[in-house]
Amino acid sequence: EAQVTQNPRYLITVTGKKLTVTCSQNMNHEYMSWYRQDPGLGLRQIYYSMNVEATDKGDVPEGYKVSRKEKRNFPLILESPSPNQTSLYFCASRRTAGNYGYTFGSGTRLTVV
Amino acid sequence: AQKVTQAQTEISVVEKEDVTLDCVYETRDTTYYLFWYKQPPSGELVFLIRRNSFDEQNEISGRYSWNFQKSTSSFNFTITASQVVDSAVYFCALRGPDSWGKLQFGAGTQVVVTP
Fold it and tell me: Which of A32, A72, A108, B10 could form a disulfide with B110 if both were Cys (CB 3.0 to 4.6 A apart)?
């Protein structure tokens, strides 16, 4: 089944403790992206990647890092999480060429206390 | 800059009523793509429709219909004869022509359908 898999689905952590949210897709998509969802703001892009070793900032990159060492994986790294990073996170992927839609992961609900 | 406005924060209806969700967008691109997503209480994003800027045909899919009007930069979504299962947050989103383009989301509209 074609899908984007995020882990974990839920995570509660403490301020300053480094964490990684994994994202993996099995569709050989070039483009991958991370979004965060906050009430009243919709979803906002954090980082995106056009292909392996090609990443760039989105609208709200502060406090986050990403890497794209393999085409299928695009982990989101919070080096020193803070309470304002409490949010619902989505990973998405799509083909770069053509008018293709996005495939979203199931979301990761992160709480930083 | 691109912008998507969903002015309705929450809409409450009784089952079987029709409900229309407004979406107004801003873009300088002549080629762009519009999307609607549904987010049920379980939290995942469910793709509903994608529309290209050069295709202004309205679309109907079962109880769902979409009205795309470039003249008013609107892409409204109507649920006919609403059901409790339609209770969700609905997002309108816009993407430009570039292959690296992001999805610009609106704030979302919460639809509550009561029996």
Answer: B10
Q: Which residues contact A1 (CB under 8 A, 6 or more apart)?
A: none
Tokens, residue B37: 């997503």
What residues of chain A, 4 to 63, have a C-beta less than 8 Å from chain B? 31, 33, 35, 40-45, 48, 50, 56, 58-59
pLDDT per residue as tens digits for the range B75-93: 999 999 999 999 999 999 9
Chain B: residue whose CA lies nearest to A100: B50
Are A50 and B108 a contacting pair at CB < 8 A?
Answer: no
Can you give B40-88 as a three-state secondary structure string?
CCCCCCEEEEEEECCCCCCEEECCEEEEEEHHHCEEEEEECCCCHHHCE
Distance from CA of B46 to the nearest CA of A (A): 8
CA–CA dist B73, B70 (Å, integer): 5
What is the rounded (10 degree) CA torsion for A23, A29, A31, A32? -10
Whether residue B60 is predicted with pLDDT greater than 70 in this model: the reply is yes
